[in-house]
Amino acid sequence: MAGEIFDNKGSGEADWQWPSIHPEGRKFGVIAAGIALVTIFLLDLELIGWPLLAFAGGIFAFFRDPDRVVPQDPHAIIAPADGMVSLISVVEPPAELVGDDGSGQIGLPPGPVTRISIFLSVFDVHINRTPIGGTVKRLIYMPGKFMSAELDKASEENERQHILVERSDGVMIGFTQIAGMIARRIIPFVKPGDMIAAGQRVGLIRFGSRVDVYLPAGTEPKVLLGQKTVAGETILAELGDQKLLEGISQ
Question: Which domain holds residue 218?
Answer without folding.
Answer: 76-238
